[in-house]
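About this split. The held-out portion is used to measure sequence recovery: a designer receives only the structure tokens and must propose an amino acid at every position. Recovery is the fraction of positions where the proposal matches the reference. Here is one held-out target exactly as it appears in the evaluation file.
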């Protein structure tokens, strides 16, 4: 059972039953950590889904370029795009707009869409996050390091 209490001062308190809390606090892998504040900046559901997928690809926390790759059909499935969309509609109406919004609003993402073709047909899509800690300004680097050293489950720094 989960209880959520919203206090007048804006704080949110979440209470979990002991079994669920033990499970959640004991997780070591097979989950993706992302900042709630980042997802609240994004308006489009496609941007939010793409943001979460890109976070899953970022296994080394910005030390190298993250790459999400798949077929156009896989991207349609992952993002919940309408089934009648061909790749051009997917790219123009969903991918480009989501990439643009993420690049504009998320500090540690610089996304780029790349396509692999067989003849004229697009058979592979890759989205690269070209932002890395090495490319970050000192301000962004300090921001990322503060995120990496915070133990979100215990609420304190490592």
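Reference sequence for scoring:
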């Amino acid at each position: 059972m989960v209880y959520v209490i919203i206090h007048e001062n804006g704080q949110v308190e979440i209470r979990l039953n002991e079994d669920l809390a033990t499970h959640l606090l004991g997780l070591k892998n097979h989950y993706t950590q992302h900042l709630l504040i980042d997802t609240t900046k994004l308006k489009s559901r496609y941007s939010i889904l793409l943001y979460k997928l890109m976070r899953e690809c970022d296994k080394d926390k910005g030390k190298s370029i993250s790459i999400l790759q798949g077929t156009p059909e896989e991207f349609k499935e992952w993002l919940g795009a309408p089934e009648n969309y061909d790749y051009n509609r997917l790219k123009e109406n969903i991918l480009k707009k989501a990439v643009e919004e993420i690049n504009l609003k998320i500090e540690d993402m610089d996304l780029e869409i790349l396509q692999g073709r067989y003849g004229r047909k697009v058979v592979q899509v890759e989205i690269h996050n070209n932002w890395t800690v090495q490319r970050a300004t000192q301000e962004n680097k300090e921001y990322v390091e503060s995120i990496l050293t915070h133990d979100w489950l215990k609420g304190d720094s490592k």
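Annotator remark: Residues 32-157 form a domain with the Arc Repressor Mutant, subunit A fold (CATH 1.10.10.10).
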